[in-house]
Amino acid sequence: MTHLKAGDQAPDFSAPNEKGEIINLAHYQGKKLVLYFYPKDDTPGCTAEACSLRDGYGQFQAKGYEILGVSPDSVKKHVKFQEKYSLPFNLLSDETHAVSEAYGVWAEKKFMGRAYMGVLRTTFVIDENGKIERVIEKVDTENHTSQLLEV
């Protein structure tokens, strides 16, 4: 569970996108940002979430938002995922978990009685000044766009 909450300064980050370019929070200075963390490319829940955001991308842009996805997958896997589903936004490769740890979403998870470390699906809405406006920990993967825009 993340320690960050609305009103907190968003932690800076630095990680490669699907093109291998290093992206950090400063790239979004003066823009609103939907920063979403997801466990793994090309799995049912993660695909539903990415496609919901893709389908609502025009609505986000009309409201001045950029979208940035983050997972521990490699740049190469992100390229395939992005191309397969025509995702119009950047995906960051967080193989070292540094970005996920900074946002408090790298944690112990359990599946079928087995404990392992992984990403807690979480979305942060960050304002133009780098302050967190909202934290969504109970992500509705299929309806994430409406979940974000219904405020």
The multimeric state of the shown protein is single chain
**Arithmetic mean of pLDDT:** 93
Characterize the biggest β-sheet: 5 strands, mixed
**Portion of residues in helices?**
25-40%
Overall tally of structural domains:
1
CATH class: Alpha Beta
Q: Name the beta content range.
A: 25-35%
| N-C termini distance | 22 Å
Radius of gyration using CA atoms only: 14 Å
Salient structural properties:
151 residues; alpha/beta; Glutaredoxin; five-stranded mixed β-sheet; two-stranded antiparallel sheet; 5 helices
Q: What can you see in these coordinates?
A:
- It is a single chain.
- The chain is of the alpha/beta class and 151 residues long.
- The chain has a single domain, classed as Glutaredoxin, CATH 3.40.30.10.
- The protein has helices at 44-55, 57-62, 75-85, 98-102, 144-149; strands at residues 14-16, 22-24, 32-37, 65-71, 90-93, 106-111, 114-119, 122-126, 132-136.
- It has a five-stranded mixed β-sheet with strand order 5-4-3-8-9.
- Helix 3 links the parallel strand 4 (65-71) and strand 5 (90-93).
- The protein is globular, with a radius of gyration of 14 Å.
Gist?
By secondary structure, the protein is of the alpha/beta class. The chain has helices at 44-55, 57-62, 75-85, 98-102, 144-149; strands spanning 14-16, 22-24, 32-37, 65-71, 90-93, 106-111, 114-119, 122-126, 132-136. The protein has one domain: Glutaredoxin (3-Layer(aba) Sandwich).
